[in-house]
Structures are given as structure tokens and as C-alpha cells.
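Predicting holo structure, uridine-5'-diphosphate bound.
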Amino acid sequence: MAILVTGGSGYIGSHTVMELLEQGEEVIVADNLRTGHQAAVAGGTFYHGDLRDRAFLQQVFKQHQIEAVIHFAANSLVGESVQIPLDYYENNLIGSHTLVSVMLEHGVKKIVFSSTAATYGEPNRVPIYEDDPTAPTSPYGETKLAMERMFHWCDQAYGLKSISLRYFNAAGAHLSGKIGEDHQPESHLIPIILQVALGQREHIAIFGDDYPTEDGTCVRDYIHVMDLAKAHWLALEHLRKQNQSNIFNLGNGKGFSVKQVIEEARRITGHPIPAQIHPRRAGDPAVLIASAEKARRELGWTPQYSDLETIIKSAWSWHQAHPNGFQS
Ligand code: UDP
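Done. C-alpha cells:
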């Protein structure tokens, strides 16, 4: 039986596909290639199509015996979602709705879901635990939370078992050097900093230095993409064994400010990486740090690559070898 990975050509999706293949799983990828790269998919069977296209999905489910779905395909940028909320509602909610209804039509009742720390919004305390209140500050977080809730009600009604993985800040690149982060245009902090070090940008814009944090810049919990990929496989195994819905935070439990990340990148790249202070970006909470105790305890997940040095070094190797991403 196969595992269907939606959005498997994206950044976290492609690293998860690699992990699943290493674990000996049969992998099917469905992706519309709007933001992903087919070259990032290390193996398995690839289908080019959109989740909102029911006929396309039905074809995929007819061709293969699908055991479970790992669902990444979605729009995923906090800042952008504040600018174009309707796109997020349409792609994220209608895509997931169509996916789940076709899954149920074919009797597929296991899903691992790519969720986000953005479901919490501005937290009341850090680290954040899974049962802390959710109050998203962006349409991105809001649509991801709505999808989690849809899965919850589909469990009650139809026995759909879901594991939602709430990622904090995915970063770094595969240590094999074969795949890494490639967004066009790039909006994430670490790759943008490294583009400055590569001479592709003049400076890094720091979005706000008046947050209630030690140095005034936002604090995030950076987690290596290979550790995230491993967590998806563990979640799949957990669904196979326990067949119970659940929610897990995936983070490192440590926070770094934007300024600290820039400083570490200066040390690793040897480049001065000039920085300028810009206004805040809409939708950004000041501090997001995970408690990932539950994932460690119940999934047996142990992040191995998530110290800031390994994250930035692996990303730096990828960006140096692929200055234009997968087109290099
Ligand atoms: N950030 C920044 N300059 C940039 C990109 C990001 O100051 O050019 C900040 C952003 O405001 C946030 C943090 O870096 O506080 C991480 O942003 P990113 O977009 O990488 O991830 P997000 O937290 O939105 O998932």
C-alpha cells in the first residue's frame, strides 16, 4: 500500500518524501507545482495536479492502493496571507475539503497534516503546549486551524484519524546536499540572510525591532527540516499502531531572535550581512517557542539536527551549491 504525499515537491514535503523512501515506503506525490519543484522529488510516482480538482484526485486514488495521506499542499506564508486572504481560504480549505472527501470515498481514513504554530497566534505563555488557546493572527494560521477542526469533526462523523503536526520554523537543508529550500520569491528569514551572503541582495530587512523581546526583534523556534521529515514518518507509524487522532508541536524548545540568527549567519559565512530596520510585518507574533515534549514522549521523536549552527551550515551548503535553487 502507498502513502500519498500532497505537496511533496515543496520544501518540507520533499524532505519528507526522501525520509519515507529511506524507510522503504511506497510513495505517491500529487503536486500542482505552483511553488514546488519536481526536481526536489527524490522518487516514487509523481502526479501533476491540483487538490481542488476532484477528477484528478479520483484518478490518483483509483490507480493506487492508498493507505494514508500526508497532506502538505497549501499556501503557507503569514505575511502574504494577510494581503490575499481569499486565496488562502480557497486553496487551503477547498483543497483539503476535496482531498478528505475523495479519501473517504475510497475508504482511506488516515491523514498526517502539515499544521503550524501560526494556529496559536500571540501566545499567552512560552513554551507553547498543544492544549494552549488557539487565536491565529493571520489568515494562514486561521485556515490551518480550520482544517484541523474539519479533521476533528470528520473523526467524530466518519472515523477519519488525523495527526496534526504544528511546525514552528522549518529551516536548513538535507545533509546529502541534494535538496533544500527554494521559494520564488523567497520570504523566509534564513534563506534571505544567505542570499545577502551570496551577494544576491544588498541587505537583510529586519521586520521590526520594537517587539517586547530582549533585543526588540521577533523570536522564533527553528527546527531542522530533516527532523521535521522524520516526525512525519513517526506520526504515520503512530497512526498505524494507535489509530487515534492527535496534535503535536514540532519545535526545538529554544528561541532565537532575528538579530541572533543574523549574527550566527555572519559567523558561519564570514560575510558582514548588512541589516536595516524596517516596519513590522503584518501577522507576526513577537515570540513563538514550542514545547515539543509531547512529540518526544508519544512519537519517540528526538531532533538531531536542530541546533542553529547545523541549521545554518546545512542551508549555507545548499545555497552555495544552488545559488538559483533547483534551476542551478
Ligand atoms: N523576518 C525578517 N526579515 C525577513 C524575513 C523574515 O525580519 O526578510 C522575520 C519575520 O518577521 C519573523 C522571522 O523573521 O519574525 C521569521 O520569519 P519567516 O518568514 O522566516 O517565518 P515565519 O515565522 O513567518 O513562519
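The chain has two domains: 2-171+222-250, 189-220+253-327.
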